[in-house]
Design brief:
Helix 1 packs across helix 2 and helix 7 crosses helix 8. Helix content is 30%, strand content 20%. With 261 residues, the protein is an alpha/beta fold. It has a seven-stranded mixed sheet with strand order 3-2-1-4-5-7-6, sandwiched between helices. The longest helix has 21 residues. The two termini are 27 Å apart. It is built from eight helices and seven strands, in the order H-H-H-H-E-H-E-H-E-E-H-E-H-E-E. Strand 4, helix 7 and strand 5 form a beta-alpha-beta unit. It comes from Castilleja foliolosa. InterPro entries: SAM-dependent_MTases_sf, TPMT. Pfam families: TPMT. Keywords: Methyltransferase, Phosphoprotein, S-adenosyl-L-methionine, Transferase.
Length: 261
């Protein structure tokens, strides 16, 4: 099914060229603070949180993400389901069956798209993230339709493959030299006719990370070699205000070939 928010752009010809974002604006836009707050205050707060977050990640590559969740340094977390994903779910535009959300964090997206026709697995490397997800979802009436798993995405070997994988703020969180491994793992986890949906963010020119800057070309570079081609690429006009113009929705299918766990 072809889903459209805005007119599509053919891949790989489409390349997003956006204005350069100053470091200060990038830091400010990492947050979900409301526009009516003072710009100087929000910039200082966001700057401090992002700096602390990055210091934790770079100082402890093993436990850094868990410490970030423990300390509440999670500028990527919307605190609610991703609007465009909810729209796709509500309009029947998502594959049924088994779905995976790597780097699920507090689990809002997992619960949002779980239903009788779709079992969703939320994956995260952080104990604190999984605990928060379990706590937030404990009152959900859809509990039988989702599962949270604490494990490393790159080494995880589930018993069954997936019909859908949704990636948002996960690709940009890993070191760029791991992106090829990410693509291989995605390929191995999806059924031959499965679909990968990527919400590409942040589309800009900042240096360093995480989050590391991304582009459509970055995804194509690692997904094309494992057989994936984009069926739809367009700006995400349902992005939250601070991220508007810096997110691109991509839907990917691959050539029929064997997947393996």
């Amino acid at each position: 099914m072809r889903f459209s928010i805005l007119p599509s752009y053919n891949s790989p010809a489409f390349r997003s060229v956006l204005p350069y974002y100053h470091r200060k604006r990038f830091i400010k836009n990492m947050t979900t603070e409301t526009p009516n707050e003072s710009e100087s205050r929000s910039t200082v707060i966001a700057n401090t949180k992002l700096t602390q977050f990055q210091q934790l990640i770079h100082s402890d590559s093993t436990n850094g993400w868990d410490e970030c969740w423990k300390e509440g340094l999670t500028p990527w977390d919307l605190g609610k389901p991703t609007p465009v994903l909810v729209h796709l779910h509500n309009t029947g535009s998502l594959p049924k069956g088994r779905a995976l959300v790597p780097g699920c964090g507090s689990g809002h997206d997992v619960v949002a798209i779980a239903c009788g026709e779709r079992h969703v697995v939320g994956l995260d490397i952080s104990d604190n993230a999984i605990e928060k997800a379990a706590e937030l979802s404990s009152v959900s009436t859809k509990a039988e339709h989702f599962t949270f798993v604490k494990t490393d995405f790159f080494t995880w070997c589930p018993a069954e493959l997936f019909d859908l994988i949704f990636d948002y703020t996960f690709f940009c969180a890993i070191e760029p030299d791991l992106r090829s491994l990410w693509a291989e793992k995605i390929s191995n986890l999806l059924k031959p006719d499965g679909e990968l949906i990527t919400l590409m963010y942040p589309i800009d020119n900042h240096e360093g990370g995480p989050p590391y800057k991304v582009s459509v070309a970055d995804y194509e570079e690692v997904l094309h070699p494992v057989g994936f081609k984009a069926t739809y690429i367009a700006q995400n006009e349902l992005a939250i205000a601070p991220r508007m113009g810096r997110e691109i929705l991509g839907r990917w299918r691959r050539s029929i070939r064997e997947s393996s766990l």
